[in-house]
Amino acid sequence: MLNVVVIGYVWPEPNSSAAGQNMLSLIKRCLAANFKVTFLTAATDSEHKADLEAIGVNVRPVTLNCSSFNTLIAHIAPDVVIFDRYMTEEQFSWRVKETCPDALRILNTEDLHSLRQARFEAVKKHGDAGHAQLNSELAQRELAAIIRSDLTLIISQHEMNLLKQHYGVPEAQLQYHPLVVGQSVCPTPSFEQRSHFVHIGNFRHAPNWDAVLQLKQTLWPAIRKALPKAEIHIYGAYPPKKATQLHNEKQGFLVKGWAKDVESVMTSAKVLIAPLRFGAGIKGKLLDAMRCATPSITTWIGAEGIVPYTASTNADVPTNTEDTQPSLQSKHWPGALCGTDLSKQDVVQDYVDKAVALYRDENAWNTAKNLTLTALDSFKHQQPDEPFIEKITKLKQELNKHRSDLFMQSLLWHQTLAASKYMSQWIEAKNKQGH
Asked: Sign of dihedral through CA atoms 70, 138, 283, 104?
């Protein structure tokens, strides 16, 4: 039985985000393997957090930039430490390495933050995420965390390819760890039994908030003009005042906020619309739509990692510093895929045409609905070569050999993180002086 510590960047909120679902499923896999699991976090309390103690997890708070963490981690003496996102690895990995050098260190990325940020910058500059510059300073930080770790969990096949073929990360340090998908809803309401459009996503996640703004300012007015009786229902955790102020019943733009039952929301809607202009990882809302047999309209950003690429493109493996837009097999998508540059009228019109067709045409809607299970099954069959539990059990047993083959890892530990370490120690000393 392995003793596992998870250091959370935030509390897992499975009903708020795909990242929360992913973290909870990771913890449950460890518990199912009869591992002892302790969850540590410096995050403030959360009203929507999962009740980890109820499922057998020991929960302990920790303080940033404080040697009390060293004392605590030494007492727990973990076999495995999982860092939630690269920022947590930066903050705590050197303390773990010093105190528990034989612990297997695993980084759970959730998605590549540097890729998401690069695409955001490209949208601001060019209007199109396809011009993202991959070799950014943030990418250097995130890649350093990946290389320092013994194993990194990657949620998307696209990001696996990017790390191996563009950044040159050794395959031995990467593990494809797909998002766990819930059971499909059956039976589901028919075309006649459904109404309106839906969008859902945590408002604290920048791509989701941007999508809401694109709907409000650009897409929904055009769709509403073509479908004057249709409404769009906007759901998501933590809606700020600036979001609730967008609510306008006359325009059919209804900001609903927190969705207590995602399945009920999805199955009652006729179409999910998610105009994601940037982002990374896997979009849980689109998988949820498939589970609920709800056609969806999104972008290549939204579909990335869910549907396959065409054989004729190598855009998923960039040959330069730009993250070029891939050519996705849109015929496999249960709905429609549209462009990301909403400053172009033809892109906006494409959204309108496809939204109207799915909403009005029962045959088109049923064709898309029938594709939801096919697409979902295809995604579910994208499994890692070696299951997570088997992988970490084997790595723990062969840890010295594994590390001896990772020259860049040893080089980074020799040369880097000193700044983070000494800055943290300086902050701790300053805090003590303040008292």
From this structure: negative
Q: How many angstroms separate the Cα of 71 from the Cα of each of 62, 68, 77, 81, 100?
A: 11, 5, 10, 15, 11
Which residues, in sequence order, are bridge partners of residue 59? Answer: 39
State if pTM tops 0.85.
yes
Q: Which residues pair with 81 in a beta bridge?
A: 5, 105
All residues at 6 or more sequence positions from 382 whose CB lies less than 8 Å from its CB, including other chains:
157, 176, 178
**CA 101, 104, 107, 108 torsion: positive or negative?**
negative
Instruction: Convert the pLDDT of each residue in 250-297 to its tens digit.
Output: 999 999 998 889 999 999 999 999 999 999 999 999 999 999 999 999
Contact 137, 187 (CB under 8 A): no
Gap between the Cα atoms of 71 and 360, Å rounded: 63
How many whole angstroms separate alpha carbon 196 and alpha carbon 211?
17
Which domains are delineated in the chain?
3-181+384-434 (3.40.50.2000), 197-380 (3.40.50.2000)
Q: What are the respective helix, strand and coil percentages of the chain, to the nearest 5?
A: 50, 15, 35
Q: Which two tokens stand for residue 250?
A: 């006359």
